[in-house]
Amino acid sequence: MIWTVLIIAAFILIVIGYMKVNKSETPYEFWTREDLRDHLLRQAEHYGFSEPVIALLIASCKDKSWQPHEDYNGCSIVQDTKHPCFECWFHDYNWKIGQGGYISDRLFLHMMLFTGRDKLTAYTRWFFVRVGWLFYFRWKHQKARNVNPYTKEFKNAIKDLKLSKKFN
């Protein structure tokens, strides 16, 4: 039974992986990087994220190796609760620049918990993200040689969130 669920989930994520985001279909078509940064900074302030997470946010908004208007599509299967969704922003950013994988997915999980997402929802989403990574995206990134070391900002953010008492 569990293998059937995993195979179906992997299939869904593979199909989604093949779908391309049409720039005109994103709600951010007319937003600048500064608009996105300002909106996300307001979310960071609202949730009480610390300096290491804010530094990662600023770095992600300045990073020219990805195009948020084309590469960021929010939550793939479920509807974003906020636009842009803080945790999904980082998840898409890390995967697009070649920093996907287990640690990146843990950052996604920690951010969901930190922003108040209930544990069942957070762990369910994290599980499906892991399935998608293991069955499809990992191999896609390796084939494209899009595997890069974690940045200093990323390492500091994950360390800071792991040590946070807010969701432990």
Strand content: under 5%
Q: Averaging pLDDT over every residue, what do you get?
A: 79
Radius of gyration: 15 Å
Number of helical elements? 8
Q: What is the helix/strand order?
A: HHHHHHHH
Count of the separate structural domains? 1
Strand count:
0
Q: Please mark out the parts with pLDDT under 50 across 5 or more consecutive residues, or reply none.
A: 18-24
Distance between the termini: 31 Å
Structural class assignment: mainly alpha
Can you tell me the overall shape? globular
Helix content: 55-70%
Largest sheet: none
Q: In words, what does this structure look like?
A:
Helix content is 65%, strand content 0%. The chain is mainly alpha-helical and 168 residues long. The chain has one domain. Helix 5 packs antiparallel against helix 6 and helix 6 (102-114) runs antiparallel to helix 7. The relative contact order is 0.15. Residues 18-24 have low confidence and may be disordered.
